[in-house]
């Protein structure tokens, strides 16, 4: 070879031609002069290598995968977890002298130059695996269309840039390390990035178990993955099969396999399986809990100052998210809802279970499937959570809010047997009777709250709660104050599901605020934990791609005197034995709770707890609970004249708790301080009873069947 020819080969190895470089043209005695656009520069240039985009995986409390998220389907694996035949195949077809040359294959690029000059452009790249890795890094790092186009443009300037980076890469890593990086970054088609994702997507096996035919298929795919994508149809699959056979022939030609092995592999069908790789909450087994986790991460500044940064960290960061989800509790909640409410029903039931003392969300379930199909009666929001965590506006929580007035009364020194004479109706004495926390008058003497059923008379804190008497709680709230009642609710984490400020009106105690099951369950869990409030949490720890784990610990605080929480639990226990849940019964272990039914039977609730687990169930019509009330409806194949807290949410709660706590030794509530709160205990009659009240004083020999809870007015 002449000195000029050798110079030309060296120059084209860099992907550029220097100014006035003369190369003899094939078949011509003349010369072709190629003008250069950039002077030669062979100094290595450091390549910035940001972490590869990987899948984020979410796990339940037992370590089972429940969801995954990705912008690029990829799982980075070390070279030793990639089948040797895969390494052999990719080197044979892409760069057979990879282990023999440096940053560039002089011979290969020289051959490519001849064809490029003859065609007047860049038709053949001649790029080494190292150069291809560099190109993929630049492409993956591009954040704008301009940057992406620059990484792909057919120019000698781009080739020179790649070469300088390739030289630096070759100096920095071993050949095996470069091959590992290339196999993890390469795109193979069908949405699979990296050889591990490709092996699983194409053939349903890990990269370590690829056989000869499969490895040759993937090696053939990297040249033009968008043309040979098997998901595109028969033509693309035929091209992929053709490419596979080219790879097999090349491997045999190089002596990497025998001709017999190549022929046997070529005789096989393509074998593409197209294994589906779930992406997002809609494809999770537990979509509502998944949505809660997703929104929790996307709102956490620890994962980025901006929403965009957090979205990238979540979809590309390769995180392992460990959560509080208890498969046993989740199964119990799903089964209980399914038993009582059909997925095809207009009414929507939702439930959340929360662990007292930690705030850990153990389960989230709803009666309808998650998704966007109206035909399948799906919903695309989190029915069990607030708007911040993927929910909407929630449902009015009804008489479950009476518990906050009860607690406020106990905080102010009232005893269990203290009470008020409640009338058949309650009207605020004046506009100044109720003041919100801003000091504004919110009393409404022009409107009267009534009881749908039940006789008026003297009601104690216990009997008024057991019978859920509206007029009693209005009078009680008048005594203890609206703002102190609101402050009690807030201390237990109560807030509106839509994120707006709580509506502080005189009917606050009757549950006029829209709430979500997670929030209500967490508030009741604080009572079970003897006044310790722990914000609801779904995440216990997050492991990054570097293997380091950040643990999330409960941020709990004491918000109630433990003895006041004990007295509240004591009274609420009577709801099962003497109150609105008496006809439904208990769960065979100490439990406490409160039914909730809103004005006109728009929605129905039950919130309750044991010392080990708390839960809240809501039901309403998502088309508009005030317009589509729960009267004259068929739910779960059963007709209801009117749905109350004890008729549907209560049984769902009971069934859930019975299953979720099966095998868990019962824990008793802490006995009350009778010297402070009075009361003679759960198993004896209250000190003062209303002889006209069939709930607290049933006729001798009679049993109250499914007692009716008075729906609150608004």
From TrEMBL:
Which EC numbers characterise this protein's activity in its record? 2.4.-.-
Q: Where is this region: Disordered?
A: 676-714
Basic and acidic residues: compositionally biased ranges: 705-714
Domain Glycosyl transferase family: where?
63-251
Extract the signal peptide range: 1-19
Query: Its domain of life?
Result: Bacteria
GO terms, molecular function: glycosyltransferase activity
Task: Name it.
Answer: Transglycosylase domain-containing protein
> Which species is this record about?
Microtetraspora fusca
Lineage start: Bacteria, Bacillati, Actinomycetota, Actinomycetes, Streptosporangiales
